[in-house]
Each structure stands twice: as structure tokens, then as C-alpha cells.
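Quick note —
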Amino acid sequence: MASDLGRHLKNGEIILDTKNPITVNLYSYTNSNYPFVNHHWGFGVLAFLGYKAFGFAGLTIFNFVLISLTLVLVLQYRYKQMGLFCTLSGFLIMLPLLTYRTEIRPETFSELFMVLTVILLLSKLKLWTKIMLLFLLQTLWVNIHVFFVFGLLITATYLLTKRRDWILLPAQIVACLLNPLGLRGALYPLQIFNDYGYRIVENQTPFLLLKVIPSPIYYYLLVIGAFFFLIMLLSIKSWTKSPDFLFVGLLALVFLAGSLKMVRLMPYFGLFGLITLSYCFWYLASKYKGVLVHLFSQSVVLALSGGIGTVVILALLYSNLFNPFINFGVGLMPGVEKSAQFFTENKLPGPIFNNYDAGGYLIFYLYPQQKVFVDNRPETYPSDFFTGKYVPMQENEEVWEELSREYSFNTIYFYRRDYTPWAQPFLIRRLNDPDWAPVFVDDYALIMVKRSPQNQNIIDDYELPPATFLISH
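Predicted structure written out below.
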């Protein structure tokens, strides 16, 4: 419900109808004409076509296929070179990081495109064949996700370690210009954070998040990061002997550093870490073969007995919520559409005040009949909107009253799992506010309407008693 998918689907629908990639904030009544670079317009089109053909269940399956294809390509590539044991060891170690962000997002394409770029660069194809395939891949990538810039990073790293075929990089750079906004779209990754007024979880460091969300996955990143760095040092003598290892090893180190700066990069460290660790294990096994054989013969029984425990631990880490089955399945989570159905069936009036996380959901179900106050795209709102309005109005009652009058809010729609410091106190104050009546609540959302003659019928039919929320007036 709090993901971006609803907005991506609406983007795709509008783009197919209007043949326009959308370059202003259509969905918000607060900043309707604010310009932005729609760097993932192509993903919206693909997602909407898939949704129309196969529904949400089909999108889930397609996303699973993309993730599986990425992993299969990596595993097959490494298995041919390093064998089953080394490849599987690297895969199991990196699995929790690889599965950190598995929602239906354009990032799934970026993961696949990264792997394809590496495989193409290391292939034995003729130079002009490589140029053509990388050009086509980069052209597709620049229209699907802002991480297309990593394609250039990968090729630049390859050229630094190989010192040949420099024409590959200019070809990719030219491909980046083939987007609806040309040079502006190509340069956007360098500018996206210039006016970014809202801090989102995936852009934070694991050190900060551990203070707020003590999830095992962030501890795991730190432990595996240290382990990976140690293994790389132990294998340092092989760096100059194998340019391929140096190439992927540098990429892994870059994305490890990136993950420590921004946790959304963890799956990319997982991909390149898998490739690199497999090589490190193969190298160390070759160097210390006699010792390793002896240790293996003594520990095989212990390894087998601990196998089930390892699987359980990995499942817990994969879930990121201590429950390996909480997000299992295809399509929508049970009941997630009920609040939107209540909203539309009762024709609740706007303007709506909604929190950041609920924006994409409301856009999918309500646009164009209703626009949102905000949605989960900081780049499509000026930074002072967040710092001067959105956050202060939830922290300060005087600001809330002032902006409530300015925008004439009629309905509040709030995603209940918003754990920002200001969200829950704001909800409690609204539930104690005699000007607002709660009319719908479930595990995902709370809906309130303004006490006014216009809303009296809805209040009479659906107002929830204070006991529902265990609060005192």
C-alpha cells in the first residue's frame, strides 16, 4: 500500500492515452504544475500493460521472473568458472541482501540490466557487437529507471581495469540522450537530490536506521561487509592476475560503500558481492587446498546438521520483519483495497489531507476525480513544501490549523504504518479533535471527515466510537 506501484500504473495509463511522458506533477493539488524529470516513465508503461493483461497477480509473477532471471544469469556465469561449491557459498551469504527490496519496482530492471552489462563486457563477442548490444540496453535503461547511470559506472570500471575498447563508453553516453528530455534526462541522476526535501528510509544509512528500525538485515549488512572486505584482502595477490576479478571486485566495493551510505543499494552489493566472493573462495580453495580438504572432512556432519538452522536464519533475514511468510503470495495483500473502496463508494469529498506514504495508493484509485495533498516523490515537490508545510503541520497545531483553513481539508486519509516521529502523535491529536470524525479504520488506513453539514450523512452512518482507538478525550 505504501509502495510506488499505484502511481507507476497511473503514469502508464496516462502516457499510453496522451502519448506524453508527464513532466509536471499532475496528481497533487498543492503543486500541480511543478516540473520534474519522469525518469521511470517506461516502467510505468510496461507495468500498466502487464496489469491490464494479467492483473496484480500477473505483475507479481513477472517481477519474480525478472528477479529469478537476474540470479540465474549470475549463478550460471559464476558456476561455469568457479564450480558449484564456491558459487553456492557466495549466493547463500549474499541472499539476504539480494532479497532486501523485492517489491514491484523499476529497480528490478536495473538489477537485471547491471548483470547483463557485466556479462556483455566480459563476453568474447566482437567489439562492434558489444557496442550495439550495450547501446540498445542503455537506451532501454535510461527510459526505465534513474539507475541507468550505473551502466556508465560499470563500463568505466571495466575500461579502467582492461584498458581497452574505450569506444564502449561514448556509445553508452550517446544512448543516454535517447529519452524524452534529451540532455536534461541524461543529466538527471546528478541533480535528483538538489531539491530533495524529504528523508526516505531507503536513502538512509544502516547506522541511522538501526537506531530507528532495529532490523537484523542492517546488522547483517555490517557483518557481511566486514567479512567481504577481509576476504578481499586475503585474495589481494590475485587482483593483478585476473582483470575480471579486479573489475567485479571494484564494483562490489563501490556498492558496499554505497550501501553504507544508502541502504537501497544493498541488493546491488549483493549481486557483485556474490560474483566476487565466488572467485575469492575459488582462489583461496586453490591456494589452501590441502588444509581445506582436511577441514571439510572433519566438519561435514556439523554442516549437515546446521543446514536447517541456516535456512531458517536466512528466511528470517529475508523477511526483514522476523516472519518469513508475512509477505508471501501473489497480487495484493488481503484487504488492502478496502479503504479505497470505502472512499469511492461513499464519494468522500476533497480536498484530501494524506500522508506521504499513502500518495501512490490514492493516485491509483482516485485520480483524476481527486488529487492528493502529497505523494511519495520528493523530487516532484519543492523542498520547502516538506520543510515548511508537510512536516510542521503534523508537529505544530497552530501550523495545522492555519494550513487546514488555507486548503479547506474535508477528508483525512492516513496510512497508519507511518512511523515518522510526527505521524502517530498527529493521528492521536486528530482523533481527539472534535472537528474531525473517524469513519473508517483497518490495518492499513484511517479515514476521517470534517464535521460539517456536507458530511453529516457519512458521519451518522459510519462514525467510529472512541473505544475503537483506545484513546481518551
